[in-house]
Amino acid sequence: MLLEIITIGDELLLGYTVDTNAAHLARELASIGVSIVRRATVSDDANDIASAVREALDRTGAVITTGGLGPTSDDRTRPVIAELFGRDLVPDEERWDALRALWKERGRGEIPETNRTQIMIPRGATVLTNRHGTAPGIWLEDELGRWCAMLPGVPREMRGVLADELFPRLTARLDGQQRVVVRSRTLRTTGVAESKLAELLGPLANGIDGLALAYLPGQEGVDLRLTARDLAPDAADAALTGGIAALREMAARYAYAENQTDLASVVLNECDARGLTIAVAESCTGGLLGARLTAIPGSSSVVIGGVIAYSNGVKKGLLGVTTESLERHGAVSQEAASEMATGVRRRLGVDIGVSITGVAGPGGGTPDKPVGLVWMAVDVRGDVRTHGSRFVGDRAEIRFRATQAALDLVRRMVAG
Ligand code: ATP
Question: 133 CB less than 6 Å from ligand 1?
Fold first, then answer.
């Protein structure tokens, strides 16, 4: 099936909103065997929307739009496309009652009359229920079988309507056809440079059995994305499972998870499985490590707390870092990191203490201790390991990379 995507909104053209909807649609649709042959973005202007949709329908006869379904005057998608299909708009009073009840339920009082635009449905259209917002999606089809699906602009709502309503419709249409799909899976690695990783992968470095391999370096590490093209769904899944297993074997200790999984959640799972508790002692990251860990639901069974030990006074007073270490080696040193990890472990009575101390910049660097130098330590029941690194990037990147490296040190120590 060939299809075009049109994303609608001035804010997209002006660059204030990044068009994540088009990317999400493209990925998801490719995975069920729909080929996106063209993507366009247009303003909220009625003529621009009309000409883009008309041209797309003439070319492929299958269009998905996102945005412009709201209750305000800049939301013109519905009337414009209804007119293209030669349909008038009719109020759906049942939907109005439901919307009114929803507003009351959410404590917003009486629903404004302007919201009535959202219950104006093109005659003969199918409503694609939106369980995450007030603007329903709409499916319009003409007698030649040409169709346009209008989805909301808010990404969470768009994803919901796509999954709940549009996906099942499209897969039903594809059923019985000889389908080939584009599917991907990603193996996440950290603590290893892209070139070293390529070396480790050896003969697999350029792809595996017809699967394309992409190296995607980022702050969290290097993601390895395998993509299967032009295979039947089952064959694509089987090839990807085999491919990921082969990559995992070669990337060995650097591989920590698949797809979007955060390293913090891997660490929490490893600790939880062993009944281990964690506390953090953070200097230059100022709580970022604790924030990453506690962002994961269920973290309270593992994370006990932490100390933001920004000043030397707190490092000494709360964590027991010695004056001698601070005077001889400085606050950014292997010694200070080690004492911070042990200090927080004892002070909070946990199994694992993790510490980070470094120079996040942009100022404060010296020839001895340049910007980006970070020391970290992990103390697992008295077994202490330290790691020093020189991270590149701006202040935010250095701080994030430091938390990633510290989490990886915990993962390796805990999982052996
Ligand atoms: P609603 O009635 O729920 O507001 P809508 O269909 O009217 O939905 P828009 O008003 O076009 O949606 O957009 C709502 C918000 O969704 C925008 O402010 C923008 O932040 C976001 N958005 C819209 N289109 C996109 C897109 N293509 N990618 C990412 N975000 C988008």
Answer: yes
Q: Whose CA is nearest to atom 24 of ligand 1?
A: 153
The reported pLDDT for the residue numbered 340 is 98
Question: Residue 114 has what pLDDT?
Answer: 86
DSSP string of 251-308, one letter each residue: HGGGEEEETT--HHHHHHHHHHHHT--EEEEESTTTTHHHHHHHTSTTGGGTEEEEEE
Ligand 1 centroid to Cα of residue 16, in Å, is: 12
What is the pLDDT at residue 95?
Answer: 87
Pairing, β 303-308 against β 278-282? parallel
Q: Check residue 165 and report its DSSP letter.
A: I
For residue 149, the CA-to-ligand 1 centroid distance in Å is: 15
382 backbone dihedrals φ, ψ, rounded to 5°: 95, -15
Q: Which residues of the chain have pLDDT under 70?
A: 73
Q: Is-contact 205 213, C-beta < 8 A?
A: yes
Tell me the Cα Rg of the chain.
Answer: 27
* Residue whose CA lies nearest to ligand 1 atom number 1: 70
Ligand 1 mutation pick, 17, 74, 118, max ligand atoms within 8 A of CB = 17
CA-CA distance, 383 to 141, in Å (whole number)? 67
pLDDT digits (tens, 9 = 90+) for 145-165: 999 999 999 999 999 999 999
pLDDT 10s digits, 197-206:
999 998 888 8
